[in-house]
């Protein structure tokens, strides 16, 4: 059974953050977020997504991980505090403008047009420059080179593919616009284990392509394994954050993570 291990008033920082000198691509600064009325789901939450790293966000069910990701992408507006891109406040900016800043989202759950072909789903990602046929063709070629499986299935209805294949199409659609950062919300939820492992291996390589990652995940084991920097949330607040190295070197933190993994396995 899961137990809350620490409940300090102040979040603990587990050692210096990896890439701590680079300014964040994205940042939440002391945000409070409410869905309805004045019940604040996030309270004083601060997080930074640093370039070239995978930043993982973990925490118990209902801790506010997905709410934080939606706030990062402008889908929820903070009641208090700010969202920043490259150090500049963009609080209240609508989600569709994030791609102009090179930031893409792969939301939780299925987001494809099931009846449309794989290729038409990719073409929709190119909507803003649809009249530039050469640019669309280049985006498709690049995506098919990265995901040969999608090229083979380009005429197939997206909804006829397996869950894992659909996830790769969603990733391909997000990457078609060559973002510098991608926000992933539970990328392997409801995906078979083998495909989930392939997705994590793919995500792990993204920084090598110059793509910064924010990964919100219930799969604590995989999130801890591939992240460079981890945030642990609890009840909508910062609990602990630090580099993956600091987590691996601190036995009390390891115990806490192990406890969560055990909890998840037993549940
Ligand atoms: N659309 C909504 N309207 C009202 N409350 C919501 C809404 N979405 C989430 N919540 C509440 O906000 C809190 C945080 O939810 P959130 O989905 O962000 O947590 P999470 O850490 O991502 O959880 P999980 O790991 O279970 O996905 C929960 O108490 C949840 O019930």
TrEMBL record:
Keywords: Amino-acid transport, ATP-binding, Cell inner membrane, Cell membrane, Membrane, Nucleotide-binding, Transport. It comes from the Bacteria. SMART domains: AAA. Signal peptide: none annotated. Gene3D superfamilies: P-loop containing nucleotide triphosphate hydrolases. The keyword S-adenosyl-L-methionine does not apply. GO terms for biological process: L-amino acid transport. SUPFAM superfamilies: P-loop containing nucleoside triphosphate hydrolases (SSF52540). The keyword Cell inner membrane applies. Residues 26-260 form the ABC transporter domain. GO terms for molecular function: ATP binding; ATP hydrolysis activity; branched-chain amino acid transmembrane transporter activity. Belongs to the ABC transporter superfamily. This is ABC transporter ATP-binding protein.
């Amino acid at each position: 059974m899961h137990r809350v291990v620490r409940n300090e008033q102040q979040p603990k920082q587990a050692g210096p953050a990896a890439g701590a000198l680079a300014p964040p691509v994205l940042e939440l600064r002391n945000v409070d977020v409410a869905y309805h009325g004045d019940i604040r789901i996030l309270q004083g939450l601060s997080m930074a997504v640093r370039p070239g790293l995978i930043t993982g966000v973990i925490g118990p069910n209902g801790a506010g991980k997905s709410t934080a990701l939606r706030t990062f992408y402008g889908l929820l507006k903070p009641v208090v505090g700010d969202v920043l891109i490259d150090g500049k406040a963009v609080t209240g900016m609508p989600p569709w403008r994030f791609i102009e800043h090179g930031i893409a989202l792969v939301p939780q759950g299925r987001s494809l047009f099931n009846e449309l072909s794989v290729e038409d789903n990719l073409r929709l990602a190119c909507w803003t420059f649809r009249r530039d046929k050469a640019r669309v063709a280049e985006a498709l070629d690049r995506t098919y080179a990265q995901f040969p499986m999608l090229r083979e299935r380009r005429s197939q209805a997206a909804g006829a593919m397996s869950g894992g294949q659909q996830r790769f199409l969603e990733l391909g659609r997000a990457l078609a616009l060559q973002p510098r950062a991608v926000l992933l919300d539970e990328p392997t939820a409801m995906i078979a284990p083998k495909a989930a492992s392939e997705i994590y291996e793919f995500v792990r390589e993204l920084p090598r392509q110059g793509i910064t990652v924010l990964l919100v995940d219930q799969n604590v084991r995989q999130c801890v394994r591939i992240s460079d920097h981890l945030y642990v949330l609890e009840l909508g607040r910062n609990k602990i954050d630090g580099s993956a190295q600091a987590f691996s070197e601190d036995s009390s933190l390891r115990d806490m993570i192990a406890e969560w993994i055990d909890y998840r396995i037993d549940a």
